[in-house]
Amino acid sequence: MTQSILVVDFGNYETTAALVTEDQIQAIACPPAWNSHLDIHYLRTVVDAATTVAHSPIDRLSLTIPTSFGRDPAKREAVVAMAAEAGFADVELISDSVAAMLDPHTRPELPDDALVLLCDLGVTWSTTLIRLQPEQPLQLAEETAAESLTRAGLDILTDSALRWLTASCRAMVARANLHLSEVDAVVLVGGGARLPIAGQVLHAELGRPVLQPADPEFAVVRGAASWAAQATNGRAIKATPAAWRVEPLSWPTPDRARVLRWLVAEGQPYPHGACLAQVRTPDDRVYDLTALREGIMVEHRVRSGDYLPSGTIAAMARSAMLISNDRPTKHLALQVSGEWMLTADRRNLVEYADSGAYVRMRAISSGAVVEEVCPVTTPQHGRVFVRPGGQLALVSWDDVGHFAVWEVPSGRLMSQFQASATPLSVRVHEGDWRLVSEVDRKVSVGRYRRDVATMWDLGTGAVVDEIVGDDLGRRFTGFVDRSAQHGFAAEVRSPDGRLRAGSTRVDGHAAVWLHQADTDEELFRTDVATAGQVRSAFSADGHYLLNRWSTAQTTRLDVWKI
């Protein structure tokens, strides 16, 4: 059912509001605020005004909150409590900065994943570092100016206020371990954005493009209204279907039987008719508890030595025979302008940027970052390789030829060395742990000019050899430009051997499939629109299927929960 939502952007001296119904957004005239804080009496006044315009009660309420409230649970809870007192227990909150970046007049000019510095030059100034995401902008850091700095009003911009603005922007970028060159744009909103000097100073001091939406003082309420419009039919999250059909195991046991021992451990597969456990009766007879059909033991509900009354659920199991009724669900969709790998134990993902700026280890189950390595220097290129002992290392370099090797995940600098000229190619032999690089330099051999390559020991940074000749690439057997031990393959089996996964390609498009290994019955298939290769892997516990594939700009990873 369609709902009417009141959106209120409360300012220190001016409040704006809008009524959202389906795709209609209507401005609501607000009376002047009589104090500097949103209170229950003023909120009720605004709600009454909106009710008069709508000719019916307001269904839901959305409030913008100051950017500084974003990380203060107590202040957010106080606003929610006030809205509940006004009759809106399901009030939704959105920060000023996030709302401003959802303004339709601003967002179309910026792509997803763009990094933005938002400068709100309203009555109270603030700066916010934001990462644009498809669902909703992510607020990374924020600062708010002292009221004394900007209370002079919007007619003039003082030198001290502009100095604070540029200094705040630089500080936030530095604290996030980023460089200003990584910021896609500076966005100006609020009444002060109309004064040309603000944009001129920011562009001159930061060297980044400066964007300003039309009527910048209304950017926050426009964005909040756009956000609220998505909920006019209610925000809904569909229940996740069962990944595998989990079923209880129970047996009609004799009276006062005790579990003697479990013969199939949790996580282990078993065939039809297998003996899963044994029980002992009071008269010392031992019975085998057998499986009705094949499956995988999920959980023991009754411990060894405990009584097992007849019909009690003794364990939980899942059956591979029932997977066709439980379609795998996409759990994560990740992308990076670099590469994805799996750790050797297949419990974590490894994400690294082609720029060498970072290496992140993520949990497969959640996608959360569990470890991160960021070189203290600023490389321009980087690759993760596997050392002979199985440990990961980041090899980074720049266009001048400075190389460095960093241990992952400790971040320890292991070695560094300098090439004689700009590297044209970089390849690593993971077994010998050596690097070879052809450089932009030639030497004379008799009447001829020959290519030059240098080989280093990655463990020590020492030069092993200097090679001169033609078509040197063919001579470097076993050297690769990206790790061959990434953990993905064209076709893979699940850890218990029951499932087989892979992909097929037709006319530049790929389809990922999942088969039951023994019967080759197809259990799942999904299309991937890509001309590149698709490689697959299973997590260590077999609960997740991972598919890695590439576009022109990024390497993508889909994680399916099975």
Structure commentary:
- The radius of gyration is 31 Å and the shape is flat.
- The two termini are 34 Å apart.
- The chain has 5 domains: 4-97, ATPase, nucleotide binding domain (Nucleotidyltransferase, domain 5); 107-212, ATPase, nucleotide binding domain (Nucleotidyltransferase, domain 5); 246-325, OB fold (Dihydrolipoamide Acetyltransferase, E2P), CATH 2.40.50; 377-475, Thrombin, subunit H, CATH 2.40.10; 486-561.
- It has 7 helices and 37 strands.
- With 562 residues, it is mainly β.
- It has a 5-stranded mixed sheet with strand order 3-2-1-4-5, sandwiched between helices. Strands 8-7-6-9-10 form a 5-stranded mixed sheet.
- α5 crosses α6.
- The longest helix has 17 residues, at 159-175.
- β35 (535-538) and β36 (544-550) form a beta hairpin.
- This is Hsp70 family protein.
- One of its GO terms (molecular function) is ATP-dependent protein folding chaperone.
- Keywords: ATP-binding, Chaperone, Nucleotide-binding.
- Pfam families: HSP70.
Short description:
With about 550 residues, the chain is mainly beta. Helix content is about 15%, strand content about 40%.
List the helices and strands and how they pair.
Blueprint: E1 4-10, E2 15-21, E3 24-28, H1 40-54, E4 60-65, H2 73-85, E5 92-95, H3 96-101, E6 115-121, E7 125-131, E8 138-144, H4 147-150, H5 159-175, E9 185-189, H6 196-206, E10 210-211, H7 219-229, E11 246-249, E12 258-262, E13 269-270, E14 275-280, E15 286-290, E16 295-300, E17 315-318, E18 329-336, E19 338-342, E20 348-353, E21 359-363, E22 369-373, E23 381-386, E24 392-397, E25 402-408, E26 413-418, E27 423-429, E28 434-445, E29 448-457, E30 463-469, E31 491-493, E32 499-506, E33 509-516, E34 522-528, E35 535-538, E36 544-550, E37 555-561
Parallel strand pairs: 1-4, 4-5, 6-9, 9-10
Antiparallel strand pairs: 1-2, 2-3, 6-7, 7-8, 11-17, 12-14, 13-16, 14-15, 16-17, 18-37, 19-20, 20-21, 21-22, 23-24, 24-25, 25-26, 27-28, 28-29, 29-30, 31-32, 32-33, 33-34, 35-36, 36-37
Helix pairs in contact: 5-6
InterPro entries: ATPase_NBD, Hsp_70_fam, Quino_amine_DH_bsu, Single_hybrid_motif
Pfam family, one: HSP70
GO molecular function: ATP binding; ATP-dependent protein folding chaperone
